UniProtKB/TrEMBL annotation:
Gene3D superfamilies: Zinc/RING finger domain, C3HC4 (zinc finger) (3.30.40.10)
Annotated keywords: Endonuclease, Hydrolase, Nuclease
Chain ranges of the Structure-specific endonuclease subunit SLX1 C-terminal domain: 113-173
GO molecular function: 5'-flap endonuclease activity; crossover junction DNA endonuclease activity
GO biological process annotation, one example: double-strand break repair via homologous recombination
Gene name for this UniProt entry: Slx1a
Membrane-spanning ranges: none
Domain of life, per lineage: Eukaryota
The protein, known as: SLX1 endonuclease
Amino acid sequence: EMELFVHGFPSDVAALRFEWAWQHPNSSRCLLAPPTRRPREQPISFALRLLPRLLLAPPWSRLPLRIRWLRPPRPALDLAPPPHVVEEEGAGLPRLKRKKGRSQEVELENSGCGLCGEDQATPLLRCPRPHCKMAAHPLCLARLFLAPEPLQLLPVGGACPRCHTHLLWGDLIRRCRGEAEPEEEWAEPDDIIIPSSAPT
């Protein structure tokens, strides 16, 4: 039986690298001090102890990943995942469904970036709050979100420059691409699944 899966990777390669590190923690260079398996510890218990350590390690610590627990109640993890990693519950695998019409309609209302004021062909990121009209180029908004962390390349999130709501970067990108929320439809993605009887 499947216990959980992790999804939201930007590419198949990123997902495969995460999966390999999860299966080979002692060989991975991403974990500086991987935990050792306890005597008589079940493979799934060890995998669950390892999961938050992987999510907290570069290069995955800044990715907008999601954990979907398939069987309630969800087990308690030794460490908490990063705060921007969303934990979901429920059986099924998410299919990212394209929403038709919304992005084109909003694009006609306001075609300029609210931060630089320029019109470019780049799709704009928009605040998900219904009454907020913030729209900005991804690069402009990324610069704003990364101002407190100038050495980072990928923002985790930041405050909307108009309504000051905290926004997660991954959610903004998903909305810009017209992808539906995972709860709306389910199908089989290319994500990482770990069975409860995984071998060591």
